[in-house]
């Protein structure tokens, strides 16, 4: 808690997340540190593999800071991966080049016995060192964001063993063995809450919880397996670190975004690309700050598709109670100059 | 039009789709003819490849009728594929075993010049023969459904060349070359409308338009590229075949389902797995019949997950103005006896 800096109110992102009137409309981008930047690819090349990259504080801190050197962004988000949590719980995780993550999948209830949160913080010490290194170098007025995957999304990788199209293995486990699945979610709530607390103590000034696969659940299960665990994590985090802003990103939650806003556990909701902005302005913004939701492909295409996309968001959701962002991560093929165009448009300095 | 049978009112599916009170709650399942049935795998083995299968009226008619021999379903849906339309337009389409469809992708506006609907009906004659063969053998009280892919979803395959995760190529084309993209959509509206008219003339008594990838679009584009073309197709079809019921399935449309209901062009909306049923009952059902939306994984798992899932739908959306269905297709690993359990539960004859 003593790590939440007193100068918080000088930072537009924190002003907005705390419901204060901001000096300017804050903007940051999901996956702003990434392959679309040549300097990222260079520093990435110094690591043996992606996991090694995430656990090298010197390299990860450099990747975190790179986008802030190029663009007038209001926040850095620590360079890491949501799968460091399953790794810290004892699950085997690796990345296959060009194929994404692979995990030794949980197949039956007994496999859960192999997982434990006992060593979580020591195993993730490198992430906290990265945050400390970034905090020491962060430009004035910029905020540092920590993050974690939500239990449902982490469970999806832990049970599927990789990304999936229909999530049939995951749902089969969840529907077919509900008690074992609840045990897994409880372990993940504990692990994610502690991981976020440790990130805040290492210098994170706000956190985002990513539920990337919330959108595949019917509504009753979405509330039970996405919303409820995320809300419990937010409560535990706030009990340990009062005042820390929490952004929930239940991607694809659709109408159930309304329940996330009403829950009251989150300071802001990240809106995915598809969420209608008129509805968000009417139904969500009176209860919560919103963040989003430009289609990353409009950023990739640039030109009038980009400027029209930006203007639609500013008109529907700005200028107060809005953190400008994409509705999903920056695509690897995005020209960096389009990001500069985007920031200029949001700042109102573009033609 | 003279092919819409006079006995329509004897068929529960058609009664419900036409807003009449039905003799019983109708049920059919998306992908009810498919790999989960051993007899399907047997007949599939007689074709050289998947495309050949779709163009063999004897085999396709047999696959169409198989699920009705096993289960007390209210409709047969012609066995075919949405990609027969790009094929009939002159695009190269093939299926790689275990990998799904592949197409010679459209890369630039000039590639559109290679496509033409001139030969559409002759090239798809085998589909219409399949419908005629099924219509001749259809058990009493059962309806025959024709279908097509919606322009947005067809465009996704035509431009991506395969299924996609982020649809970046498709959106890049659509956002970056909007005039060429509108030309492609117009061609697809023409082709799909004609394909549906020909299916009705061959014996289809209702049609469903599948927009499987509607859910990846922001709302303004969802209305322009999914809703508007589907509504135009429905209008053209009805002009040629008055009274033919049209089901639209804009999968993942979320809140924009409301705009589909208000448009007034469709007799029913297929609800995907994730759409909250309470909202659908309140906001959609007063304006339209709804169809759906059991999670296919609940059918796969069976037991109490299945019966609870069925009961939730009947309670929220039944018994009138509902066609029972899944929220997505039957999964290949589904035990056929679970489908029998599902039908019995819907019929109220299960314990």
Secondary-structure map with pairings?
The structure is a homodimer of 351-residue chains.
Chain A: H1 12-17, H2 38-44, H3 50-54, H4 57-70, E1 75-77, H5 84-88, E2 93-96, E3 100-103, H6 120-123, H7 125-137, E4 143-149, H8 151-160, H9 168-176, H10 178-201, E5 206-211, H11 219-240, E6 246-250, H12 257-263, E7 268-270, H13 277-284, E8 289-294, H14 296-301, H15 303-317, E9 322-326, H16 336-347
Parallel strand pairs in A: 1-4, 4-5, 5-6, 6-7, 7-8, 8-9
Antiparallel strand pairs in A: 2-3
Helix pairs in contact in A: 2-4, 4-7, 8-9, 8-10, 9-10, 10-11, 15-16
Characterize this entry briefly.
Chain A is of the alpha/beta class and 351 residues long. Helix content of chain A is 48%, strand content 12%.
What would you say this structure looks like, in words?
The structure is a homodimer of 351-residue chains. Chain A has 351 residues and is an alpha/beta fold. The first copy, chain A, contains 16 helices and 9 strands. Chain A has helices spanning 12-17, 38-44, 50-54, 57-70, 84-88, 120-123, 125-137, 151-160, 168-176, 178-201, 219-240, 257-263, 277-284, 296-301, 303-317, 336-347; strands at residues 75-77, 93-96, 100-103, 143-149, 206-211, 246-250, 268-270, 289-294, 322-326. Chain A has a 7-stranded parallel sheet with strand order 1-4-5-6-7-8-9. A two-stranded antiparallel sheet of chain A has the order 2-3. Chain A starts with 11 loop residues before the first helix and ends with a helix. Mean pLDDT of chain A is 95; it is low at 4-8.
């Amino acid at each position: 808690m003593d790590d939440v800096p007193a100068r918080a109110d000088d930072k537009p992102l924190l002003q907005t997340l705390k419901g204060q009137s901001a000096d300017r409309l804050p903007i940051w981008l999901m996956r702003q540190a990434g392959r679309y930047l040549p300097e990222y690819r260079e520093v990435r090349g110094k690591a043996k593999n992606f996991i090694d990259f995430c656990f090298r504080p010197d390299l990860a801190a450099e990747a975190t800071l790179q986008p802030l050197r190029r663009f007038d962004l209001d926040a850095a988000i620590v360079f890491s991966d949501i799968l460091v949590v399953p790794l810290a719980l004892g699950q085997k995780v690796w990345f296959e080049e060009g194929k994404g993550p692979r995990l030794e999948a949980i197949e039956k209830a007994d496999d859960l016995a192999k997982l434990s949160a006992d060593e979580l913080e020591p195993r993730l010490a490198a992430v906290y060192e990265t945050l400390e290194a970034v905090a020491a170098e962060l430009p004035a007025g910029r905020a540092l964001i920590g993050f974690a995957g939500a239990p449902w999304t982490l469970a999806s990788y832990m049970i599927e063993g990789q990304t999936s199209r229909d999530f049939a293995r995951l749902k089969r486990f969840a529907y077919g063995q509900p008690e074992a699945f609840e045990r897994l979610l409880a372990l993940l709530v504990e692990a994610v809450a502690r991981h976020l607390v440790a990130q805040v103590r290492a210098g994170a000034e706000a956190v985002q919880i990513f539920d990337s696969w919330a959108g595949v659940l019917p509504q009753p299960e979405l509330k039970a397996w996405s919303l409820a665990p995320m809300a419990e994590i937010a409560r535990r985090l706030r009990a340990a670190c009062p005042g820390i802003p929490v952004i929930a990103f239940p991607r694809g939650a659709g109408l159930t975004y309304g329940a996330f806003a009403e829950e009251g556990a989150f300071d802001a909701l990240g809106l995915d690309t598809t969420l209608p902005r008129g509805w968000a302005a009417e139904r969500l913004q009176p209860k919560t700050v919103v963040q989003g939701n430009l289609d990353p492909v409009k950023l990739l295409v640039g030109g009038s598709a980009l400027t029209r996309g930006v203007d639609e968001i500013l008109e529907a959701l700005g200028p107060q109670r809005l953190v400008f962002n994409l509705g999903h991560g920056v695509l690897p093929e995005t020209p960096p100059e389009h990001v500069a165009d985007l920031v200029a448009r949001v700042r109102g300095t573009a033609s």
